UniProtKB/TrEMBL annotation:
This is Ribbon-helix-helix domain-containing protein. Residues 80-91 have a biased composition (Basic and acidic residues). Residues 72-91 are annotated as: Disordered. CDD domains: RHH_NikR_HicB-like. InterPro entries: Arc_rbn_hlx_hlx, CopG, Ribbon_hlx_hlx. SUPFAM superfamilies: Ribbon-helix-helix. It comes from the Archaea. Residues 15-50 form the Ribbon-helix-helix protein CopG domain. Transmembrane segments: none annotated.
Length: 91
């Protein structure tokens, strides 16, 4: 991840770069659409806020990060398996 870049139009907003595998990005994109978010960025901001505000759920994000580091470009876990593992219903 690179350092944050200032957004010239709003001094309160910074842009960051995030590198993830294409297969994981496909899962992220499927998830934000299923959950009714307007964009990938909106979903990621929500997920980050939720992780910071509810650290007891950090285990899920830690597991996702570990999985991301271990999986190659062609590997992935279907979102329904993740939902089953963590007892979420995709909402």
């Amino acid at each position: 991840m690179s350092e944050a870049d200032s957004n010239g139009s709003d001094p309160e907003i910074d842009r960051i770069n995030l590198r993830i595998s294409r297969s994981f990005l496909e899962v992220v994109d499927e998830t934000w659409r299923e959950r009714g978010f307007n964009s990938r960025s909106e979903f990621i901001r929500y997920a980050l806020r939720d992780s910071v505000n509810h650290p007891e759920g950090a285990g899920l994000w830690k597991d996702i990060a570990i999985s991301e580091a271990q999986f190659g470009e062609t590997d992935g876990v279907p979102s329904d398996e993740i939902r089953d593992e963590y007892g979420t219903n995709g909402e």
